[in-house]
Amino acid sequence: MNHLSTAYPGLRLLSRVGAAVLGGYLLASALGVFSGALFPGDAEAVLAGVQLGFAVHVAAVIWAFSPVALGRVWAGLLLPAAALAALAVLLPRWGA
Amino acid sequence: MAKAQATSGAGQGGFRQAQAWLHTWCGLWFSWLLFAVFLTGTLAVFEEPITHWMTPEHHAEEEAALAASTRPTASLGQRLDWGVAYMQKHHAGAGMWELWPADAKGAGELRVFWFDSQRQYVSAELDTASGAPLPAASQPPARLTLGGQHFVDFHYELHAGKVGLWIVGIAALAMLVALVSGVITHRRIFKDFFTFRPRKGQRSWLDAHNAVAVLTLPFQFMIAYTGIVISGLTFMPVGVVTQFGAGMPGAWAFQAALNEPGKPRPSGRPMALPALESFALRGQQLMGQPVRAVVIDHPGDAAARIGVYGWNEDAGAQRRLSATSGLAMFSAATGEVLQLRLPGGVDGGKASLTQSVMAGLHMVAFGGLALKWLYFLCGLAGSAMMATGAILFIVKRRPRHLGEFGGATARVYRLIEAANVAAIAGLGVACIGFLWANRLVPPGLAQRDDWELAMFFGVWALALVHALARPAAAAWKEQLGLLAALCLLLPLLNALTVGDHLGAQLLRGDWESAGVELFVLATGLAAGWSRRWMARGKSIAGSAPRPAASLESEVQA
């Protein structure tokens, strides 16, 4: 991956755009799922998650295009997204 | 700086340089679509006057309706009884009866709505003197048109349904990204705001871009964010899916949890529907608004529920950011109040209220005419921000190209210039072409409204072909000239085809028609002035090449 991307600057750009668009969307969506799971069955919490999600997505894009190494950008977006999604799965079980 | 702007400049250099790269490219690729969304959205603020201008045959009917509405007719109770009698006689099996008895003054038409056996929402109008059903309007309107609705629909879904909604949503998110990165790039925004260097080519374009953006920055953030959030559940459905299930059943369950606490199930025991007048009057008193609609769930059943909705036409509605009307819900059997919502309130909690306020903010449902004008001007400024940004990109690269696209750079610049002409001047021509089509497509033609729309898209497509075929400077001049001519001649076209003109409009106090024509004339003058200014050599293509280095140090974006 690293070797490839230094050889083709176009791929690096594509990867960064992908991280911003896809990674940012996944992070924002994970936040929505998490806030829904925090208050199960509460439609208000789901709606609030959606309303905030777009601010998260914008911030993610801004960050993805700041001078940060590509690997860190992907990790910085996907790891918190995965953590939020995992918490959303685990929370109801702990609560029960 | 120059190096940081090469193709591989994403995420390189300092933070501000990286943001300048993002602002330049995110701004450029989305500027054309965003300009179209913004300009049509701005025109959509005055959707109603535009529709009014586009339906001249309707003016007489409107005046007659206005005159009729001041005459007293049957009482509210009588109108409700007629509505119930009609539904009992013709559509007793419908699970929901919706009666719209009168306008806010207790006059106007009486209408009933229900879902037919195919789950279609249908309605009938009843005579307000006898309660007898009126024959459905068999004649389609003389001049079938989308009217101002065209601009509303285009600005949020490009007449392309869900696909269009997604495209506009993505563009709106890109706009937020461009705004944030733009603020970071032009960080001395207040100093920039007080700087205007006219007749300095590239610097003037930069100053103009900064000035319109800074002046209206809060509006631009607000309109883009609220625009996304209105359709937010479509764009980010996963929270609903995980909590309430996928597809339509999930969406229904979510909506029910959000604002339909405890809709009753039919009990199976029959019960005659009580007279509605007392419910309507109690509802009116509880919510403090005149009755707009009375909705009966499960009529004829012991579990029937009666909802009384209010008219949002009181002076208070202008001061409420949330545009919801009042609602009082009663049990038909006991008369007990099941639910009360005051005007501007929502059934759910804070997130529901936020959603309603965001929709109200975006659609300028509050504040009256003054605020509509403010939105209109801010919308024009936003459109100008995108147009000047797109032009600045190319003006900056005129003296010396930056080689972002390798060997193809010159050709790509050429395409970008053509896109600028077609997206900015060409869209203007398409919009005024839409109004011309309204007067030129013969009334009574089948699918007449589609022909008008075809003219809009056809003219726009021709503008793109023209922009690709002609040198950029000539294309700008010709399209601006055409825009000016079509705008300045529109009142003449109206006089020739319909026989109406500004003088007559002003005399009869028809400010909606006069407003449309005056704004079109002003646009024509502005386009003509721009064309002359370009013809004198101060073209959008920029002044004579100057040393690039001195510009680089000043211009960051």
What report would you give on this structure?
The complex is a heterodimer of chains A (96) and B (557). Chain A is mostly helical and 96 residues long. Chain A is built from four helices and no strands. In chain A, 88% of the residues lie in helices and 0% in strands. In chain A, helix 2 (9-38) packs antiparallel against helix 3 (43-64) and helix 2 (9-38) runs parallel beside helix 4 (70-95). The longest helix of chain A has 30 residues, at 9-38. The radius of gyration of chain A is 16 Å and the shape is elongated. Chain B is an alpha+beta fold and 557 residues long. Helices cover 59% and strands 7% of the residues of chain B. Chain B is built from 21 helices and seven strands. In chain B, strand 4 (291-297) and strand 5 form a beta hairpin. The radius of gyration of chain B is 28 Å and the shape is globular. Classes of the chains: A mainly alpha (96), B alpha+beta (557). Chain A binds chain B through residues 9-10, 12-13, 16-17, 25, 28-29, 32-33, 35-37, 40-51, 53-55, 57-58, 61-62, 64-68, 70, 73, 88, and chain B through 7-8, 10-15, 17-19, 21-22, 173, 176-177, 180-181, 184, 225, 228-229, 232-233, 235-236, 238-240, 242-244, 254, 257-258, 348-352, 354-355, 358.
List keywords for this structure.
heterodimer; A: 96 residues; elongated; B: 557 residues; alpha+beta; seven-stranded antiparallel β-sheet; 7% strand; globular; disordered N terminus
Please write the string of helix (H) and strand (E) elements of chain B.
HHHHEEEHHHHHHHHHEEEEHHHHHHHH
Largest sheet report of chain B: 7 strands, antiparallel
Q: What percentage of residues of chain B falls in helices of 4 or more residues?
A: 55-70%
Residue ranges of chain B: pLDDT <50 for 5 or more in a row? 1-8, 542-557
Which residues of chain A sit in consecutive blocks of at least 5 with pLDDT less than 50? Answer: none
H/E element order of chain A: HHHH
- Cα distance, first to last residue of chain B? 10 Å
Helix-strand makeup class of chain A: mainly alpha
Beta-strand portion of chain B reads 5-15%
Strand content of chain A: under 5%
Approximate helicity band of chain A:
over 70%
Number of helices of chain A: 4
Tell me the radius of gyration of chain A.
16 Å
Structure summary, number of beta strands of chain A: 0
